[in-house]
């Protein structure tokens, strides 16, 4: 009888335990990640940024041709038309070779298809040699157009420019520059902003006054005109395109650090008076240890969010400079530099496909903004559950 009563009590206790809500212990990082994933646009933005990063990293593989290769017989060729059937019979995706002729009515050059041979779209085709990731030599490309007899014809996914260069290949290769601008500016400007903003907020007094006046000078500088002048000066010095690119990065960092430093100063002014900071000082911790171990980790969430929101702004700035001819120049390429060919109405009207790289700028900027907004909401302590 006693055993039966004990079993009933144990069963009732198990049922009560099962009906109680379970408490799950999660770290702060796990809670931020869960909150981030609940933001649908933020998740979409993260996926798009990841896709752009992979494409930029393996650009040579996705490009059908080298970004500088010229097809002089195909200037301003429109995007290739992909056919799926012929005479009502499905034969798979293929294109025809095109030939540039002059329209006898408008006296404008047009491209007409030569339907004598079908060039089928094939995956993992052999083409020009390149080094994957700069290490492995190969000639495999994601796709290409090849006939049954092995002959080839140019495949222009986004059309070609005035030199007959494939805009699709140049767009993929230019993503390396356009996507690298923002992170490199953050890499140069944030350490300076953290150092000066941290000194200003932690020590206050005369140090704060001097550093804030310096920051106000940089905030008063008209950024875009100064960048235009810097781009023109760098190009006039006869520097290599890589050096001009690094010079633009440094110029962008110099005109963007002051705002971040001021926000960091404000946060450190509030954190330095908290109990855990005073306890560290009372325990004999040095100023460097207090700043690095107790203060900087508490502003890390702001820095991460600020970085994701700074990157698209720097991308737009670089695109504007390159579009005007004061940023990235030949032989390097970027999305903004590709838009330079569409700088007049006549060119846009005749060759509208030159605007396609601008779509990549819009999509990437929106993706970074979505991701930054989601990250900002995720690190909000009142929204983490």
State the helical fraction. 55-70%
Spans of at least 5 consecutive residues with low confidence: none
Average pLDDT level: 83
H/E element string? HHHHEEEEHHHHHHHHHHH
Strand order of the largest sheet: 1-2-3-4
Please outline the major beta sheet.
Answer: 4 strands, antiparallel
Q: Based on Cα principal axes, name the global outline.
A: flat
Rg over CA atoms: 29 Å
Give the structural class.
alpha+beta
Q: Report, as a whole number of angstroms, the end-to-end distance.
A: 47 Å
Proportion in β-strands: 5-15%
State the main characteristics.
385 residues; four-stranded antiparallel beta sheet; 15 helices; 4 strands
Task: Please provide a written account of the structure.
- The protein is α+β, with helices and mostly antiparallel strands.
- The protein has helices at 2-19, 28-37, 40-57, 59-62, 167-203, 205-220, 223-236, 241-254, 257-271, 275-282, 287-295, 300-323, 335-339, 345-350, 356-378; strands spanning 83-86, 89-102, 109-132, 136-146.
- The longest helix is centred in the middle third of the chain and has 37 residues, at 167-203.
- It contains 15 helices and four strands.
- Helix 3 (40-57) packs across helix 5 (167-203), helix 5 runs parallel beside helix 9 and helix 7 (223-236) packs antiparallel against helix 8.
- Helices cover 57% and strands 14% of the residues.
- A four-stranded antiparallel β-sheet has the order 1-2-3-4.
- It is flat and about 85 Å long.
């Amino acid at each position: 009888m006693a055993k039966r009563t004990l079993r009933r009590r144990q069963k009732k206790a198990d049922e009560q335990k099962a009906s109680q809500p379970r408490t799950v212990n999660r770290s702060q990082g796990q809670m931020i990640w869960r909150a981030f994933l609940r933001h649908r646009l933020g998740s979409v933005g993260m996926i798009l940024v990841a896709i752009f990063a992979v494409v930029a990293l393996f650009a040579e593989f996705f490009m059908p041709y080298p970004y500088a290769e010229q097809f002089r017989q195909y200037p301003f060729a429109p995007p290739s038309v992909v056919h799926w059937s012929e005479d009502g019979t499905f034969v798979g995706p293929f294109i025809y070779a095109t030939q540039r002729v002059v329209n006898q009515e408008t006296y404008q050059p047009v491209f007409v298809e030569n339907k004598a041979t079908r060039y089928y779209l094939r995956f993992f085709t052999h083409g020009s040699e390149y080094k994957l990731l700069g290490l492995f030599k190969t000639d495999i490309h994601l796709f290409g157009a090849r006939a049954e007899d092995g002959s080839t014809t140019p495949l222009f996914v986004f059309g070609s420019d005035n030199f007959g260069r494939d805009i699709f290949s140049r767009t993929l290769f230019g993503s390396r520059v356009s996507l690298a601008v923002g992170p490199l500016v953050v890499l140069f400007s944030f350490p300076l902003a953290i150092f000066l903003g941290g000194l200003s907020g932690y020590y206050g007094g005369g140090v704060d006054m001097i550093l804030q006046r310096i920051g106000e000078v940089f905030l008063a500088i008209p950024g875009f005109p100064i960048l235009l002048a810097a781009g023109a000066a760098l190009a006039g010095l006869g520097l290599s395109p890589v050096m001009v690119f690094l010079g633009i990065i440094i110029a962008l960092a110099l005109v963007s650090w002051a705002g971040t430093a001021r926000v960091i100063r404000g946060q450190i002014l509030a954190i330095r008076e908290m109990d855990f900071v005073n306890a560290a000082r009372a325990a004999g911790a040095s100023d460097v240890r207090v700043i690095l171990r107790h203060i900087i980790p508490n502003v890390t969430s702001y820095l991460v969010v600020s970085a994701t929101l700074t990157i698209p702004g720097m991308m737009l700035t670089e695109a504007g400079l390159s579009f005007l001819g004061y940023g990235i120049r030949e032989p390097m390429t970027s999305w903004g530099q590709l838009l330079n060919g569409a700088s007049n109405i006549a060119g846009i009207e005749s060759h509208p496909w030159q605007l396609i790289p601008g779509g990549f700028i819009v999509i990437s900027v929106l993706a970074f903004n979505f991701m930054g907004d989601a990250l900002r909401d995720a690190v909000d302590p009142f929204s983490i559950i």
